[in-house]
Write a structure and sequence with these properties.
With 327 residues, the chain is of the alpha/beta class. The chain folds into two domains: 3-165, Rossmann fold, CATH 3.40.50; 184-326, 2-Layer Sandwich (Beta-Lactamase), CATH 3.30.450. The protein has helices at residues 3-13, 43-53, 71-80, 98-109, 129-135, 149-183, 186-189, 193-206, 253-265, 299-326; strands at residues 34-39, 63-68, 84-90, 116-121, 140-143, 213-217, 229-236, 244-247, 269-270, 274-280, 286-292. The strands form two sheets. The protein has a six-stranded antiparallel β-sheet with strand order 8-7-6-11-10-9. A five-stranded parallel β-sheet has the order 2-1-3-4-5, sandwiched between helices. A hairpin with a 5-residue loop joins strand 10 and strand 11 (286-292). Helix 8 runs antiparallel to helix 10. The radius of gyration is 25 Å and the shape is elongated. The chain starts with a helix and ends with a helix.
């Protein structure tokens, strides 16, 4: 019996172990799934991997399977999909070291340090575990015959947790770079947009929020019930292209309804997957932030978001005073 046949047998044999998970399959149907690349030259390995991970769910997100049947094809897939989170990688394909050579390509040529690589081998003696782990930048090493359905599920789950953390750190780093580059000239240029975008990017990364948020200069908005525009200061995610005066039609109805409600009550409000934070300065400058979340907001999350809105509003007020004094 080949190693692939053994892999199929051990996975199918414990198929009932994760039966409870199947009820969660549709939790995140409307959320972008994690991308999992399967690299193996045997069709049965792809089939049983799909079977084993069909009901997978992490943070409301399922899996999108991407298949490659050779290291060469995997290179093309990796160039096509820059957001692959985990790779299940066979060692022996076109050559005895095709998988290991692919690892070098990923880490050195693509310079992709985020993707998690789980090496799967059917010939452990040919690529000893200690040698592979110490010499190659992989994140896990598994023999195909030991990968039951439950063990594969656990390996992918922990790898995705790690990938998610690394992704948050990278987004935080990018946000910090924007803050650093803009903070030195913020009062010289009288432009707070880049600064706000940078801090907003950091905020969502630190709190593991959805990367969809919009900061609005709300003074005087909706004083007239027929107002049809918002004044967007900064946006990220699906709001990234919005700036300046923006038509209400650019926003979902529920977003507009939440903003109207907050401006009427002059208080922040939040639901199961969103928060609208409100702050008004001593001079009457109103500012609010709409941000979506993957889960319920915690008290520390809300406190940090409220502090962000307050500080940016005060910075706006200071800039406005400088402009008035200048004129």
């Amino acid at each position: 019996m080949s190693s692939s046949d053994e892999l199929a047998n051990v996975m199918v044999s414990d198929a009932l172990n994760l039966a409870v998970e199947s009820s969660k399959k549709h939790i995140g149907d409307n959320i972008k799934p994690w991308k999992l690349l399967i690299v193996d030259d045997e069709e049965v390995v792809h089939t049983v991997t799909h079977l084993a991970l069909d009901a997978f769910n992490l943070s409301g997100r399922g899996l999108e399977f991407v298949s490659a049947y050779s290291a060469s094809e995997a290179r093309d897939k990796l160039r096509e999909h820059s957001d692959i989170a985990v790779i299940l990688l066979d060692v022996v394909m076109e050559t005895d070291r095709a998988g290991l050579d692919l690892v070098h390509f990923i880490r050195r040529e693509l310079n992709n340090k985020l993707v998690r690589i789980i090496l799967r081998t059917g010939q452990p003696g040919q690529s000893p575990e200690q040698e592979v782990i110490t010499q190659y930048d992989i994140n896990d090493y598994k023999e195909k015959t030991e990968l039951t359905r439950q063990k594969l599920f656990s390996a992918v789950y922990t790898s995705l947790r790690s990938y998610s953390d690394l992704l948050a750190l990278e987004e935080n780093r990018k946000g910090l770079m924007k803050v650093i580059s803009s903070s030195a000239t913020i009062f010289e240029t009288r432009d707070i947009t880049q600064f706000s975008e940078g801090v907003l990017q950091q905020l969502t990364a630190l709190l593991y929020l959805n990367n969809d948020a919009v900061l609005i200069n709300a003074s005087g908005l909706f004083a007239n019930s027929k107002a049809e525009k918002l004044k967007v200061l900064a946006g990220i995610g699906k709001f990234q292209q919005l700036h300046g005066e923006v038509e209400l039609a650019c926003f979902d109805n529920d977003v507009v309804a939440s903003i109207r409600s907050v401006l009427k009550s002059k208080k922040s409000q939040y639901g199961d997957n969103y928060l609208v934070s409100y702050y008004i300065t001593t001079s009457g400058l109103e500012q609010l932030l709409y941000v979506s979340a993957k889960d319920v907001f915690s008290v520390p999350d809300i406190e940090m978001i409220e502090l962000f809105v307050k500080n940016v509003a005060i910075a706006h007020e200071t800039l406005a005073l400088l402009e008035r004094n200048k004129s």
